[in-house]
């Protein structure tokens, strides 16, 4: 058994070659003997089972090997050097054979109870860490060019022993992945990225007796992995209890944002299990099971902005086949079997009710838009299409965007600092001071032949027309990485032609510019809390094409023009958006108005013309906030979600945003968000602070702003209800 296992992990640096098939069979016959060389014993003939002590048992075993013509083990190893090499591999890998160590358990049908916390590890090679053994530069560098990488790689590999270290380290990871992806070993895991916890799941199911129970604490990536359908289907049939936690209270010595679950498994049957998600302490589950259902439903944080530990009966959801059908309608296409649907994580029953409404809506896929993942940040950089280089490009044709460049309906949110030390080394842009011709600073610049650069980027084909580059069109881009517990998860913004992006940003667009209005509608829906909810309830590290295409949208609606105007005034920050503004402008934009008291806003919503100007984009924070929440109200109305449900979603699913509305987003009389330095003085002395104390320099522009009291927070729930009511009345009139 050790020899068979060693075949998977044969080192590429081993001087002894592995056996041929003929040698393999010959060696095993010498070790074990040949079946059938001993005639069947008569009932009266003594057998191994008749031995009365260990000595007799040992003698009987030796006789059995002798009758089978098994050779001496030591001599066999001497005659076959590969077997000695296999022993060395086995000692290094520490193979464990359940069937030998627990033979008596399996003879009785398997384990009655298995409890464990299996390894949460994906076998991944870290070549840079291995190279750092010879050259510490690999662990000390920030961003580096491809040329620098090549020079340091050549140096590290020239150090004695490093090449073998890298070869052994990487090949062992490849071997582990091959074992974990083997159809024979783990049929449920075929085609998946290997993860040790998944192997232990399958192992415990295989080792359980028919009435056995399994309790495991492990990650939950298989519930949201598009390729894990087979594993999911089996999991749903075996689950009895599913309690999902986030490690915000640091109950485990792992990152505080790590999600994990307690899973109780039994034998296979129709899906029927209890579930609670977004938990922070196990005591919440126990008390929720005993709760009478009264009171406000809990969310991610409580009213004091602490992680919500309150029990409530609505936390406990009963998952059956009908629930899987709802999840399927929200997340999957028709070619995906219902029992393989990805899981939807809802913190309470109100959220589940909203998602059921969204499951009946049309999808983004109906627009037939094209997708681009942009440049591969690693592979395409190594090919020489671009490299690390800070600066402001001369034109949008040289812009390569990264995730922090974007925020919700904001294509120029942050800019990288020249130091480019890490992914947080960025500075907020000043939208008020943003020039009409502004181009964002970037960390990457195109390299090499520009014709090759242009030709290698994503191309799209519209109907029977010739292919065009995705960069020729306006697109809706969004951050590919999902911050599932942050202020927002789905972070989309429109980007102008010429722009490229690396694959921490994905984008959608139409291969024909005739569909600019649909692109605006798409931008409006994607900027809403409800679209964000559709992504957030299926926590993943990335938002891939399929997730986006399943988002809800209503294209033809009496209030679509109102949605488009708000989306365009939020996104069209520079003159680069002028062609899209001109194509999509509608005269009755000029009749539109805010749903709140217009005196609170700094601009008139309908004060626009057919030509883009520097006054077209909404620049003040208070106007941008109002436009976004009115988009939330419009989308909710279009999708049949009530204002109370919308407010519950905001309060329970968007805890960080809710907290910021109470403590961070404080507005002055001119509609600007007051910076922390001014707030510190104001909280000590109130509105009587001096002009100097209420003046601060914006880090993105260097402009000094005077913040005018009174300072105030705004009630988003009240504004959402007011906006919903106003749009509901407008819809009734139309």
Describe the structure.
This protein is of the alpha+beta class. The protein folds into five domains: 2-106, no CATH class; 122-194, no CATH class; 195-360, no CATH class; 367-419 and 444-458 and 467-645, no CATH class; 666-712, no CATH class. It is built from 28 helices and 20 strands. Strand 19 (695-697) and strand 20 (704-706) form a beta hairpin. The longest helix has 19 residues, at 162-180. The N and C termini lie far apart (77 Å). The model has no long low-confidence stretch (mean pLDDT 91).
**How confident is the prediction overall: mean pLDDT?**
91
Helix content: 25-40%
Q: Can you tell me the number of structural domains?
A: 5
Helix/strand-derived category reads alpha+beta
* Rg from Cα: 31 Å
Strand content: 5-15%
Tally of DSSP β-strands: 20
- Let me know the largest β-sheet: 6 strands, mixed
Q: Biggest sheet, strands in spatial order?
A: 1-2-4-3-5-6
Looking at the structure, what is the overall shape?
globular
Q: pLDDT below 50 for ≥5 consecutive residues: which ranges?
A: none
Query: Total number of helical segments?
Result: 28
Distance between the termini: 77 Å
List the helices and strands and how they pair.
Blueprint: H1 2-8, H2 21-32, H3 54-67, H4 73-79, H5 81-93, H6 98-101, H7 103-107, E1 111-116, H8 127-131, H9 137-140, H10 146-158, H11 162-180, H12 196-207, E2 208-218, H13 229-238, E3 239-246, E4 259-265, E5 272-279, H14 282-289, E6 317-320, H15 321-331, H16 349-358, E7 370-372, H17 379-382, E8 386-391, E9 400-401, E10 414-416, E11 426-428, E12 442-446, H18 450-456, E13 459-460, E14 468-469, E15 475-479, E16 492-495, E17 500-501, E18 505-509, H19 516-526, H20 529-536, H21 545-549, H22 560-571, H23 578-584, H24 621-639, H25 643-653, H26 655-663, H27 676-685, E19 695-697, E20 704-706, H28 716-733
Parallel strand pairs: 1-2, 3-5, 9-17
Antiparallel strand pairs: 2-4, 3-4, 5-6, 7-18, 8-12, 10-11, 13-14, 15-16, 15-18, 19-20
């Amino acid at each position: 058994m050790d020899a068979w296992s060693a075949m998977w992990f044969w080192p590429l640096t081993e001087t002894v070659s592995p056996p041929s098939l003929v040698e393999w069979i010959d060696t095993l016959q010498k070790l074990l003997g040949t079946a059938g060389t001993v005639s069947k014993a008569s009932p009266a003939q003594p057998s191994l089972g008749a031995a009365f002590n260990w000595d007799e048992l040992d003698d009987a075993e030796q006789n059995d090997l002798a009758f089978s013509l098994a050779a001496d083990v030591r001599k066999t190893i001497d005659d076959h050097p590969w077997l000695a090499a296999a022993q060395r591999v086995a000692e290094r890998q520490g193979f464990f054979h359940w069937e030998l160590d627990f033979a008596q358990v399996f003879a009785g049908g398997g384990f009655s109870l298995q409890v464990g916390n299996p390894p949460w590890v994906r076998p991944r090679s870290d070549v840079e860490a291995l190279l750092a053994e010879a050259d510490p530069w690999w662990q000390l560098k920030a961003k580096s060019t491809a040329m620098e990488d090549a020079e340091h790689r050549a140096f590290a590999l020239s150090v004695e022993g490093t090449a073998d270290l890298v070869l052994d380290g990487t090949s062992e990871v490849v071997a582990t992945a091959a074992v974990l992806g083997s159809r024979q070993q783990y049929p449920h895991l075929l085609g998946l990225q290997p993860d040790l916890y998944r192997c232990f799941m399958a192992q415990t199911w295989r080792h359980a007796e028919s009435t056995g129970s399994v309790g495991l604490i492990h990650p939950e990536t298989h519930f949201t992995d598009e390729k894990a359908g087979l594993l999911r289907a089996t999991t749903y049939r075996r689950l009895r209890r599913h309690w999902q936690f986030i490690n915000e209270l640091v109950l485990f010595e792992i990152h505080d944002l790590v999600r994990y679950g307690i899973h109780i498994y039994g034998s296979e049957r129709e899906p029927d299990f209890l579930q609670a998600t977004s938990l922070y302490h196990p005591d919440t589950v126990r008390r929720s099971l005993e709760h009478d259902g009264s009171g406000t439903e809990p969310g991610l944080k409580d009213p004091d902005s602490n992680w919500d530990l309150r029990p409530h009966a609505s936390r406990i959801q009963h998952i059956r086949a009908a629930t899987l059908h709802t999840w399927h309608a929200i997340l999957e296409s028709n070619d995906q079997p219902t029992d393989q649907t990805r899981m939807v994580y809802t913190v309470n029953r109100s959220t589940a009710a909203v998602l059921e409404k969204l499951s009946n809506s049309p999808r983004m896929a109906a627009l037939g838009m094209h997708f681009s993942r942009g440049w591969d940040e690693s592979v395409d950089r190594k090919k020489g299409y671009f490299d690390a280089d800070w600066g402001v490009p001369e034109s949008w044709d040289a812009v390569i965007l990264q995730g922090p460049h974007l925020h919700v309906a904001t294509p120029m949110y942050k800019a990288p600092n020249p130091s480019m030390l890490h992914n947080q080394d960025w500075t907020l842009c000043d939208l008020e001071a943003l020039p009409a011709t502004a181009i964002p600073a970037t960390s990457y610049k195109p390299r090499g032949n520009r014709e090759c650069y242009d030709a290698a980027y994503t191309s799209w084909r519209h109907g029977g027309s010739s292919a065009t580059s995705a960069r020729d069109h306006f697109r809706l881009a969004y951050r590919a990485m999902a911050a599932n517990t942050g202020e927002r998860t789905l972070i989309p913004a429109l980007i102008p032609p010429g722009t490229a992006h690396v694959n921490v940003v994905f984008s959608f667009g139409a291969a024909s510019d005739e569909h600019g209005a649909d692109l605006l509608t798409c931008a409006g829906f994607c900027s809403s809390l409800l679209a964000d909810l559709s992504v957030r309830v299926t926590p993943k590290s990335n938002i891939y094409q399929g997730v986006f295409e399943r988002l809800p949208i209503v294209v033809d609606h009496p209030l679509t023009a109102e949605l488009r105007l708000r989306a365009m005034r939020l996104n069209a920050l520079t003159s680069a958006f002028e062609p899209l503004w001109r194509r999509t402008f509608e005269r009755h934009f000029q009749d539109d108005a805010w749903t709140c008291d217009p005196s609170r806003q700094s601009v008139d919503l309908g004060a626009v013309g057919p030509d883009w100007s520097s006054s077209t984009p909404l620049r003040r924070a208070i106007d941008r906030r109002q436009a976004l929440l009115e988009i939330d109200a419009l989308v909710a109305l279009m999708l049949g979600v009530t204002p109370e449900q919308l407010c519950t979603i905001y309060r329970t699913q968007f805890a960080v945003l809710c907290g910021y509305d109470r403590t961070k987003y404080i507005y002055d009389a001119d509609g600007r968000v007051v910076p922390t330095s001014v707030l510190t003085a104001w909280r000590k002395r109130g509105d009587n602070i001096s002009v100097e104390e209420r003046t601060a320099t914006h880090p993105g522009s260097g402009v000094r702003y005077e913040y005018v009291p009174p300072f105030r927070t705004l009630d988003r729930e009240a504004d959402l209800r007011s906006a919903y009511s106003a749009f509901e009345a407008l819809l009734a009139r139309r």
